[in-house]
Amino acid sequence: MKIVLLGPPGAGKGTLATALKESLGLLHISTGDILRVEMKNNTPLGQEAKRYVESGGLVPDELVTRLIKNKLESDPKAKKGFLMDGFPRTLKQAQDLDKILEELKTPVDWTLCLEASMSVVLQRLTGRRVCKNCGALYHIKNMPSQKEGICDKCGGNLYQRTDDNEATITNRMKVYVESTEPIIEYYKSQGKLKILNADQEAQAVKEIALKSLNG
Ligand code: AP5
């Protein structure tokens, strides 16, 4: 199954993708995660992406679309199905994704759009912690690690993303409304949109997602 996850920053796309990839055996592709690895390794791509990511703006379409095209063409697991998290983020990216998938003869099956209220999203983003080593997601209140600052899965150190501060979050929200929300209509017109209430706790969101995919 080929699934696109849509929703504002902090709605829980990464959390849901992690839960669904285990249940459905799909590849999780996150452009945010790919860009953060490039930035950590200080590659030319990472250096270019840094200023956009740290201000909460969007990395140019051409650059992220190239990343996704390479991933879809080179990773054999992608052919079996994927959960696309953080891509597409503009109408142009959505149209380009359709073209890439048309060439690969594997169109998107469903788009799950996570709807979350502003207060919930703010609380989630400001309390998020991420493992430096394996990328596992935590939240200081909602999903704390057993030992403060240490990943339960691999023992790595947890850190707070540089774009998880209030000023950058505000800009990310603005960018979401202006550039990404129009994609909802794009998938709706294709009959591929399912809307989920993401204000609930993570297990409940996973359950309604599975139910809507099976229904
Ligand atoms: P990206 O990493 O994709 O960030 P985002 O879209 O802003 O989404 P987040 O990762 O912040 O949130 P999420 O919805 O995944 O929530 P999560 O599951 O972590 O992108 C970062 C930047 O990269 C962009 O700003 C841009 O610059 C660039 N970029 C990326 N893709 C791009 C593209 N295609 N084009 C151009 N630029 C691009 O959950 C958040 C927190 O809440 C966690 O702590 C979690 O534990 C907790 N939580 C999650 N769900 C629940 C729940 N149901 N109940 C309670 N707590 C929950």
In summary, what is this structure?
With 215 residues, the protein is α/β, with parallel strands linked by helices. Helices cover 52% and strands 15% of the residues.
Task: List the SSEs and their pairings.
Layout: E1 2-6, H1 13-24, E2 27-30, H2 31-40, H3 44-55, H4 61-74, H5 76-80, E3 82-85, H6 91-103, E4 110-115, H7 118-126, E5 128-131, E6 137-139, E7 158-159, H8 166-180, H9 182-189, E8 193-197, H10 202-214
Helix pairs in contact: 1-10, 2-3, 4-6
Bound molecules: BIS(adenosine)-5'-pentaphosphate.
Q: Tally of extended strands?
A: 8
How big is the Rg? Answer: 16 Å
Main sheet: strands, sense, barrel: 5 strands, parallel
Element-level helix/strand string: EHEHHHHEHEHEEEHHEH
Total of DSSP H or I helical runs spanning 4+ residues: 10
The coarse overall form would be globular
Widest sheet, order of strands: 2-3-1-4-8
Q: Calculate the terminal CA-CA distance, rounded to whole Å.
A: 14 Å
Instruction: Classify the secondary structure makeup into a structural class.
Output: alpha/beta
Small molecules held by this entry: BIS(adenosine)-5'-pentaphosphate
Q: List low-confidence stretches.
A: none
CATH architecture: 3-Layer(aba) Sandwich
* CATH class call: Alpha Beta
Question: Could you report the average pLDDT, rounded to the nearest whole number?
Answer: 96
Helix content: 40-55%
The number of domains: 1
Which superfamily, in CATH terms, is the homologous superfamily? P-loop containing nucleotide triphosphate hydrolases
Strand content: 15-25%
